[in-house]
Structures are given as C-alpha cells and as structure tokens.
Amino acid sequence: MIADKAFPPVDASGSAREVCPMKSPSLAAIAFLSFAFLAVGLTGLLATYATPIPLARALARETALDAAADAARAPDPAAALDALRPRLGESADAILPPTADVAARIARERTAVRTRFLAEADATADRLRFLIIVVTIMAAAFGAFVLRFSSREIR
C-alpha cells in the first residue's frame, strides 16, 4: 500500500495519473440489464407465433379449393359450391357462379392464393424483423441508461 503511493502509475507521457478503480455494477443494474435482453428474447419468441399465420391461411384456402373442385363434380355444383362460400372467403368471387370452366378458374385461384401467401409471408417477416430491431435498440439503450446512472456515486 505504501509502495503504491510512493510510486504512482505513470501514463505514456510520463506524468503521474490517478488510479480510479472501476466500480462494479449493482445487483439492480444487472437485473435491469438482464431485463433489457429478456425483452428482446421474448419479442423473438412471440414472433415465432406470428410467423406461421400466412401459411395456415393458405393451407385452409387450399383445402377449401380442393373441396370446391370436388363440389364442381357434384350432381348440383351450384348448390354445393354455394355451400362452400364461407370457407372460400375472397376466393368465392373468383369461382362462383359455376360455369363450364370452373376447374380452370379453381386452378387460377389456386395460383393466386399461393401468390398472396408469399406476399403476406414476406410482409409478416419484414414487420417482425423491424419489431425485433426496434426492441433490441430500445433494450440496449435502456440497459446503457441504467448502467450509466447506477455507476454514479450518490453525494
């Protein structure tokens, strides 16, 4: 201890400098910083629930289009297809009323459903990436703020 005071640390210019030991962050600061990272992780976890929604919609519509193709071969295709209207959703307008080319119209609508699925999946992925980026930046700023002010001495 006495030797440290007799020979103070010297910087590159040769002048003596004061040694200030780094204060370790408090338990509260560590907890807040952990919460900041936890927020990002939970956002990513919640994003995994939103990601399959476009696929589920597309599969439900594909199933309804399969049922419409079967209904078009029924003895009374108009009544069978009209009964499927709620399941077909917006695809019903492209298929109904049934005509001779209903199979070709179902095939076109199947392609349109797949195109809409890809567009919806891309839009969902972009929104989720943006959400995770924003939450990450906010959590990092929050953690830096807490650590900055937790290391100050109270006077």
Strand content: under 5%
Count the strands?
0
Mean pLDDT: 79
Q: What is the global morphology? A: rod-shaped
Overall structural class, as computed from helix and strand content, comes to: mainly alpha
Q: How large is the radius of gyration?
A: 32 Å
Q: What assembly state would you assign to the polypeptide chains in this entry? A: single chain
Strand count, sense and barrel status of the largest sheet are: none
Helix content: over 70%
Summarize, please.
This protein is mainly α and 155 residues long. Helix content is 73%, strand content 0%.
Describe the structure in your own words.
With 155 residues, the protein is mostly helical. The protein has 7 helices and no strands. Helix 2 runs antiparallel to helix 7 (102-150) and helix 3 (53-72) packs antiparallel against helix 7. The longest helix has 49 residues, at 102-150. The mean pLDDT is 79.
